Amino acid sequence: MALTREQLVDTAFGILRDYGLADLSMRRLARDLGVQVGALYWHVKNKQELLGVLSVMILAPVEDPGGGAAPAMGDVPQTALPAVAADDAPAAIRRRALDIRNALLGVRDGAEVVALTHALDPDALPTLNELEPLFAAAGLARDQANWAGKAVVNYILGAVSQEQTRSGLVAAGLLPGEADPGGDTAAFNFGLEMLLAGTR
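User: That's the sequence. What structure does it adopt?
Assistant: Structure tokens below.
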């Protein structure tokens, strides 16, 4: 039976979820699928493209400011987002940031994968770019809204990446102690409120 793109992506996502990014090599993926490595490149140009697809899947649970599911990459332009009143914008920004954090934490090394995709092409993941119009709705000028959106995205990716790395090191016995999800959440919320206070 011929390999399909869906099989490739599902298997890659399973490796990432169960073993982490370090184990997600094209060689490992081909072995798990029972094909030669060259067969993979009929469906994805390279590993970067595969990571881009996985990034969209990681962020799929994030809700848009109107309360519905976030669109898949390229489905809906940013201008199609529901309008948010100025008074509602801070709560929408807070909710969006927490939804992105939760989505990243839901997949092993999720923050690292999404950060790689975002670094390669900042426009590839509309979910991350929807913070800017929310800051604009809150009353920030265009440039300031852009910078504020980027600052919050960088904060989320950095904080979650550090949290996932530390959790992995603790699980491997390379760091003493135990994971502290409650403490990590409290620290994240504190940092987010500092950023939001700064924009006010």
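The first helix runs from residue 5 to 19.
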